[in-house]
Amino acid sequence: MISVRPATAADADRLLDWANDPVTRATGFYPATIDAATHARWLEERLSSPSSRLYVGLEDGRQVGMVRLDAEADGRVEVGISVAPDSRGRGIGRALLEAGLAAGHADPDLDVAVFVARIRPENAASISLFAGAGFEAAGTDTVAGTPCLVYERVAG
């Protein structure tokens, strides 16, 4: 069983290691390696923002990934997920995603109406994950100059 807990500043090193994993960098919108100072600023912004949530996924107490939620306008909340490199290939992505979505939906301050995922077209694993979790194709967008597919799921 996968559960999530809010991330804290104490998670910084592990989150940075996961973020700089070559697979994560290759499938994300910002391919360059992230330095510690940049990551520390990003994490502080996420942890202090009233419109962001960052969760660490746990399986039997072991950290297996993270889910990021960022509120946009009109009840739309962007979702990002990363499964820890040593936890990939075990089928936990869906459970991690569902646990993060449930935590976000239960948070009255986020006021979620629709969850939104932006995915690079070549990221077949993420497309499969989100489509399998009930997200539906909703168009295209651009993130950091990179075209992406938009998938949405009504909260509830």
Can you walk through the features of this model?
This protein has one domain: Aminopeptidase. Helix content is 32%, strand content 35%. It has helices at residues 12-19, 22-27, 36-48, 93-106, 124-132, and strands at 2-6, 52-59, 62-71, 76-83, 114-119, 136-143, 146-154. With 156 residues, the chain is of the alpha+beta class. A hairpin with a 4-residue loop joins strand 3 (62-71) and strand 4. The chain starts with a strand and ends with a strand. The mean pLDDT is 94.
SSE topology sketch:
Layout: E1 2-6, H1 12-19, H2 22-27, H3 36-48, E2 52-59, E3 62-71, E4 76-83, H4 93-106, E5 114-119, H5 124-132, E6 136-143, E7 146-154
Parallel strand pairs: 4-5
Antiparallel strand pairs: 1-2, 2-3, 3-4, 5-7, 6-7
Order of strands across the main sheet: 1-2-3-4-5-7-6
> Which second-level CATH architecture applies?
3-Layer(aba) Sandwich
Q: How is the CATH topology named?
A: Aminopeptidase
Helix-residue proportion: 25-40%
Please report the distance between the alpha carbons of the first and last residues.
21 Å
Strand content of the residues, in percent? Answer: 25-35%
In total, the number of strands is 7
Helices and strands: which structural class?
Answer: alpha+beta
Q: Averaged pLDDT, please?
A: 94
Poorly predicted regions: none
Large-scale geometry = globular
CATH superfamily placement:
Gcn5-related N-acetyltransferase (GNAT)
